């Protein structure tokens, strides 16, 4: 249980008091209500808030008292030294200096510096190595194809990609990519053209975009789960000149073929040559059979280090996907950053069942093969029961996870393969603190490199010291080395916009104070640049300006993070996902974790719904339970023990199915729009009675709640 939303109820309802132990435990991740300090320091008219003039008076008074104390201490030392000699004066001086040092609070800074120095020095050393590698590739104007060619030359027969029992060597991947490049070169495709790629996970997916990149062709990596409008949007928003798709997805392409722009050419990839294809589509498999395995040179403009390489669509849980721009330099930086900072090795074998059209699988894992010569094992779809079985089968040493995957794996029955593997490290993002200890204990995982970052963003961090629940850190000693910050957020905007002072600039959060996570933008620096999206309007929305001085700019992550005293960073929530109920701010991610744990790790989404005539939003939990096995009585009892009353879901919806993004994140917008009206919902909905039990919500009770006759 996250200490951030645990409390002990005493006295009247809605009065919550943390025990001393819980207050100490909460130091790393404050409750959602800790967002309140964002408003209090700049809102003198709010109840309980302090005035700015009062704060200044107290600060001046504190300084006067400190200087008076120091002056008195110095006078005492001088008198002792003068009248009693240096034998007494020197000890008095040392004691006084120690007292001043302790009283000033500087000892605490030195303590934090001492305990975090090993972590910071390790990270700094690896970061310097990363910058050296990035600059080397920039100096050589290297592309992904150039770096990969070096490993093809050094180790042509080494396993590059392993897919469901089939091994592709470095030479085979290179040959396939060159054949494909020759086909498209002969069809007139050139530097700057855009060719979309719609395929399921398989080695050909990687070799295809790699081959096109050798021509300077930009390749949007399209989510193969998309259909109709969303698929059409992904093709058109990227301004595709052509679309390559696998035969398994021919039906999806056929649904939009008539509405695609006439200039978009179709290329179908089949399992065998001379197979049937869609009308107006070309048989790419057959065309490649006679193509040369040599790299096309004549008439080809060689791509450069800063050219666009691929588009990766953000998988956000709301809205249509946005195409984020990834250059060769950006790809190299992301793949190299996770490799060097997390401590990967070239002799590691990586396991990733993640979609290859996203950053995590397609760059962070595949990049280890293309840029460092490692072997990567992948499969068509993620399987919780086969995760560690695959790791054992292929002797994997590093495995990747994302989103809810770890919870699914933990929910599988115990098996002999749980610890019969060679995995020395897992990396990814989304391993919730609530199940972190159980996961590493059951599967015997020595290290977890939880990372945080956005495909398009520049505020990327990694947990390198195994701190449970941390997604990375910011140095308390030398924070300027990696300019990321947590700034105060405006509650009036759902904490999605910065809170500014009278000077119009942003305000840094203090330790244990949640806020918006940002990364300073420095153009032409791969680690600090923000390349944005194909849609320039969407790009501008992710930039915040005038942060700490007029004219500076930063990438706005859209996430609330909190840093503890040692600089370890913890994910708090997505902005907008925090809702207010009973005068308290409730973090959906924390409530989701508790509800999911109470239901045997079932898929759960939590969101706020509006209730007529009531302030704020009432919490609603949607739980995937097609067999109706959730014990609602037990759920109510468990949540009473683990959540304060304001955080307990007032409504529970038992879902027959749930929609997810390609990176295993649960979608909640549609559920939130549907609200809690049982007459418009096919699933069963329950409400929390004043007695603390979940009972079926009927249309009659729904009307009584609307009229205020049933109290929530």
From TrEMBL:
How does it sit in the bilayer?
Answer: Multi-pass membrane protein
GO BP of this protein: long-chain fatty acid import into cell
GO CC annotations? endoplasmic reticulum membrane; plasma membrane
Q: Which organism is it from?
A: Anopheles christyi
This chain belongs to which protein, by name? long-chain-fatty-acid--CoA ligase
Give the transmembrane region(s): 60-84, 90-109
Question: So which domain of life are we looking at?
Answer: Eukaryota
Which PROSITE patterns did the record assign? AMP_BINDING (PS00455)
Q: For bias kind Basic and acidic residues, which ranges apply?
A: 7-19
> Start and end of every AMP-dependent synthetase/ligase domain?
148-477
Q: Which reaction does it catalyse?
A: a very long-chain fatty acid + ATP + CoA = a very long-chain fatty acyl-CoA + AMP + diphosphate; a long-chain fatty acid + ATP + CoA = a long-chain fatty acyl-CoA + AMP + diphosphate; tetracosanoate + ATP + CoA = tetracosanoyl-CoA + AMP + diphosphate
Instruction: Name the Gene3D superfamilies on file.
Output: 3.30.300.30, N-terminal domain of ligase-like
Main enzyme class: ligase
Q: Give every AMP-binding enzyme C-terminal domain span.
A: 590-665
List the subcellular locations.
Cell membrane
